[in-house]
Specification:
Serine Threonine Protein Phosphatase 5, Tetratricopeptide repeat; 2 domains; 24 helices; globular
């Protein structure tokens, strides 16, 4: 322990350190509290009545929602969290953002607690700096700033709770019964939040194997076996009870590139891209695509991944605790690795739990045997971590401005991924709402071009923009094209019920369709 750590240790009790972590996290994410709803939150919170109906509490709490045709039917813990916000805040965004920011702060404290239990001799400054790396990394903003992406926060929360409880088991075994039950419950709640919750039992098993290998008794087998069993049972129910056909999930997810073979060739590039986002979090985007990984050819991506794998193997060989870090980083990525089709091939929010695991790894690096007699090197590394964390915090606050409103989000996304038809359509709708009609028309036409003219909603948006400019004949031609491309748009109310259109948009489209029907 260096002199700086000795001083900080005397001043920072665990309670004060936790308070500091929470305070910094809240300060960095303060601007998010005044943000509006964007992306999926507009549909799930403002349009879908499910969250606001008290009658839905019973199926959510009993996991009966797994057989219901609703958004996030497979994530009942996530739904319960949003329903609680809906009961308290209605449709006001402040409360939803407050819950997410507080949950993120709790995760930061939990990551720090895991570090304390894995490395009790690590100085206070190093542990706090590692936790703050997780707190302010720009990649976490997507999960924190969009309330309907809170599933990643919740899966991380329950994973870290289970891990902290397992690591906190006293030598004399006091309280093993309730601690084991809480660990198993954490595993169930983690996977009930999101599929990445499979990390919870895997992390506890790694903890037993690599950190607490000398401990005996029933506790570890019971927790690992029980946690694995409840996770497997939940996943079985999730797939066996899935409602089909679905009025909401009309299109099934596709492999990136169109086939499993193409996905397997793309996935190394996606993973290498994730490495880049962690090390250099620039050009973050709400809608990644092939354009986003165009600078990473397959050989270069494979070389990056091999380098990371070698570094991980060296770290684990030198310090067995690093094996737990590998689990925390790798296992959450398995459900989103495109081995089975998912709706988003890549997203920042997929990295939320891995970033927490990486923060634990940074702390263990500073506590590792390679620095035991190299205090000067350790101090320089710690200083570099502090500087990097400050820079990351600046980037994090800047990124939050993008998530503050739909116009900012889609404008940024179009600039980061100009090949995304979804982003162009989102920008067109945001510009239409803002009354910037000429720009909205250009964005709508760009969306039509990028989608090859085969996206009915793009034509409908163009029709609404033209109608707002009193260009009635052109608007009628565009709305006819929209219905021709997608006949379902002839009934906007049904599209609202299918959560494909927002209510205001659907009402405007209904009025235009009515005028078109009345025209000669």
């Amino acid at each position: 322990m260096t002199a700086a750590d000795s001083i900080s240790a005397t001043r920072l009790t665990p309670r004060r350190a936790a308070t500091l972590l929470v305070a910094v996290t809240l300060a960095v994410f303060a601007t998010t509290l005044s943000a509006g709803f964007v992306y999926d939150a507009r549909m799930q919170i403002l349009t879908d009545p499910f969250l606001h109906d008290p009658r839905n509490w019973l199926p959510v709490l009993t996991f009966g929602v797994l057989r219901m045709d609703v958004l996030d039917f497979n994530r009942p813990v996530h739904l319960a969290s949003l329903m609680l916000d809906a009961a308290v805040w209605g449709k006001a965004p402040f409360g939803y953002h407050l819950t997410s920011v507080l949950l993120h702060a709790a995760n930061v404290v939990l990551a720090w607690q895991v570090v304390r239990r894995l490395a009790p001799g690590l100085g206070a400054t190093a542990g706090i700096a590692a936790a703050l790396f997780f707190a302010v990394h720009p990649v976490v903003t997507e999960a924190v700033c969009e309330p309907t992406f809170r599933e990643d926060l919740l899966a991380t929360f329950f994973t870290l709770v289970g891990l902290a409880l397992a690591l906190g088991r006293p030598a004399d075994g006091r309280g093993d019964g309730w601690r084991a039950a809480a660990c198993i419950a954490s595993c169930l709640l983690a996977v009930g939040s999101k599929e990445s919750g499979i990390t919870a039992p895997a992390a506890i098993a790694a903890c037993r194997l690599l950190v607490r290998g000398g401990e005996r008794g029933w506790f570890w087998p019971a927790v690992i076996g029980g946690g694995t069993l409840v996770v497997a049972a939940f996943l079985a129910a999730r797939f066996l009870l899935e409602p089909t056909p679905s009025r909401i999930f009309e299109g099934r997810p596709q492999y990136p590139g169109g086939s499993l073979a193409s996905a397997l060739l793309l996935e190394p590039r996606i993973l290498a891209f994730y490495v880049q986002l962690v090390l250099l979090p620039v050009n973050l985007c709400a809608d990644y695509g092939l354009y986003s990984i165009g600078h990473l050819p397959l050989p270069a991506a494979v070389a990056v991944l091999l380098a990371v794998a070698v570094a991980a193997a060296v770290a684990v060989r030198a310090d067995r605790r690093m094996g737990l870090v590998v689990v925390l980083v790798v296992v959450p990525l398995l459900p989103v690795s495109n081995l089975i089709p998912i709706y988003k091939a890549a997203a920042d929010r997929y990295l939320y739990l891995p970033i927490a695991g990486l923060a634990v790894g940074i702390a263990l690096l500073l506590d590792g045997p390679w620095l035991a007699r190299r205090a000067a090197v350790r101090d320089r590394l710690l200083g570099g971590l502090v500087v990097a964390t400050i820079l990351l915090a600046v980037g994090c606050m800047e990124r939050q401005r993008v998530w503050a409103g739909s116009l900012a989000l889609w404008d940024d996304t179009c600039r980061k991924n100009p090949a995304a038809a979804t982003a162009a359509l989102g920008l067109a709708e945001a510009l239409l709402d803002a009354g910037r009609l000429a720009e909205s028309e250009a964005a709508a036409r760009r969306g039509i071009e990028l989608s090859g003219g085969g996206h009915g909603e793009a034509w409908a948006t163009l029709a609404l923009v033209l109608a707002a400019q009193d260009r009635q004949a052109e608007a009628f031609t565009a709305v006819d094209k929209a219905v021709h491309v997608d006949a379902r748009l002839a009934d906007p109310d049904a599209r609202v019920n299918a959560l494909a259109l927002e209510r205001d948009y659907a009402d405007a489209l209904k009025r235009l369709l009515q005028r078109r029907a009345e025209s000669p």
